[in-house]
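hey can u check if this looks right to u? its 76 residues, i copy pasted from the old doc so theres a chance i mangled smth
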Amino acid sequence: MMEATHEEEGCIDYVFSVDPLDPKVLRVFERWETQEALNDHFLASHMNPFREAMAGWGVEGMDILKFDVESFDRMR
């Protein structure tokens, strides 16, 4: 899923990470160039097999948060 998504137009970052303090928590971090690129991602051909696989993982719930950032400063 990560490799296929990184090939998508407009994908900057797409990373899965298991929480080191709670191995039952999987975090997904995404950055997209535009909202349109994110919308296209949801329609990508690899999304349906991924959703089907997730259903078999015993996912009990999820939070999906979207942050819009106008600007940022590098700290290093």
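The chain has a mean pLDDT of 91.
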